[in-house]
Amino acid sequence: MPNRKRGVKTLPALVLASALGIAAALLLCQLLWAESGKRRIQSLAHTVLLHSESVAGNVSDAVAALERSALTGCSDTDLAEMKRLTFEYRFIKDAGLFNPDGTIVCSALWGRLRSPFHVGAPTLKTRNGLLLWIRTPSYSIPGRSIDINGTPRVFVVTSPTAFASFENGAPELSVQVTSSGGRVLMRHFGRIEPGGDQLSRREVRACSQRFDICVTAQIDSNIFSPAYNGMLVLAGTLGAILGAVLWAVLVSLFHRNKTLSAKLTAAIESDEISLLYQPIIMAASGQLMGFEALARWRDKDLGEIQPDLFIGKAAELGLSTVLNRSIVCRALRECAARLKQDPHLYLSINLEIDALLDQSIVQLLLSETGRHGIAPRQIAIEILEGSTIEISRMQAGIDEVRRLGFQVFIDDFGTGYSGLAYLGRLNVDKIKIDRIFTQAAGTESAAAMILLKIFEVAKDVDTGVVFEGVETAAQMRAILAFCPDALAQGWLYSKAVPLAEIAPAYQASLSG
Ligand SMILES: Nc1nc2c(ncn2[C@@H]2O[C@H](COP(=O)(O)O[C@H]3[C@@H](O)[C@H](n4cnc5c(=O)[nH]c(N)nc54)O[C@@H]3COP(=O)(O)O)[C@@H](O)[C@H]2O)c(=O)[nH]1
């Protein structure tokens, strides 16, 4: 029954996730398609502009040639010369002369007109001084309109097929050729709609440096048009699958998190968190000086869980105190014999600063060391440098613990936000320099310079130093060069292991 209930809830959620996936996929597809359309019209606008410039250049040259010619009127010689010029220029359909009163009386193509034709005022005077009559009534065929370019003396008619190669373009494309101010529309293919850059519409504009011409190209890349049905179905299907997969991943993460929380709670309560120990060595002699307790949790279903993860999770679940108490008790129980056997050894335990300020943990440390007959001096509490707790409160807690005989170390020094000034203000026994600095030893990096600086300041304020994360003999040699009595911890000597595997001395080969 419960499974059926869950199935009933699952189906609408799955349908909703798929629907959201479809919507997201279609939206993404539309945006990508519109952007690819923009690249298409950029190239189209450029091509049309180049073509418009060559038409305008051809027309200007023809007008200049007519101006230079010795035409005086509409004699047969004049008409022959006009014809010659008309044939010479590719984008010119006809050429002729204006009367001084602004009327047309003859042209190369139509010869002498039966009656003078009045063209009226020009539509535009270009910045090159050319007069344009756009879509003005034809002087030869009634009802037709033509484009005339000229001066007050001569004119040419632009060939109506000058832009024929751009006619009958794809239906989603529109192009218009205008004067540079956009006031006069010279040519258009398709209709430019106002408002580019909507979901589907993109627009580009390109203007000529040489002529009074601008080209605007627009594309309406709407994936919902019937032409793109195939793409629509593919994108929708992929979106539905992705939405469903994402939903399944989120649900499984949520369940894993819930499972992790439940399992961790059970593991802490039944004292299943175990400890490994990593040796801390006097590098010059290889002598064992102490060991750090590092928590481990292996779940039979989830496998090995990183300490960062389960310690953070325990804090989220409000289980930090229970976990800390179990770690303190286990560490002292497991290490008591070894510490008593060798009184110069110490055991490091990681505790958050809040735990150090928690009287119940301090009392536990006292009672457990007393119960096992361990000197408090043999216990070092490692706290993190970066903490939001006020420094004076922190120092009061540290002082109290040190007064009881325990040592206090600052862990991962250099990675917090407090900087070197912190060292002078906090009274601790040792700092543990983080491995990002240790591992830079002997290199030319900024981290290597910071490492030296940290070491100098620690020496000035008479605080001991442990170099964490030493992995290579070269790093160790470089550290020994400036700190001959360095304490070191790292994989060069040993990873964290069961206490029984920790030897009294570690002869790391520092040569080679
Ligand atoms: N509050 C508590 N924090 C704890 C406890 N146990 C562990 N931790 C913290 O979890 C972090 C990760 O710890 P871990 O995965 O155990 O990693 C430790 C070492 O294994 C690792 N290490 C040691 N030597 C090297 C090395 O040479 N190279 C390398 N890449 N890693 C190395 O460093 C970790 C020890 O770090 P630190 O504590 O800073 O000395 C870590 O922050 C633990 O503090 C716990 O019981 N309580």
TrEMBL record:
Residues 257-510 form the EAL domain. The chain crosses the membrane at residues 231-254. Gene3D superfamilies: EAL domain (3.20.20.450). Its main location: membrane. Its EC number is 3.1.4.52. InterPro entries: CSS-motif_dom, Cyclic-di-GMP_PDE-like, EAL_dom, EAL_sf. This is cyclic-guanylate-specific phosphodiesterase. It comes from Duganella lactea. The lineage of its organism: Bacteria, Pseudomonadati, Pseudomonadota, Betaproteobacteria, Burkholderiales.
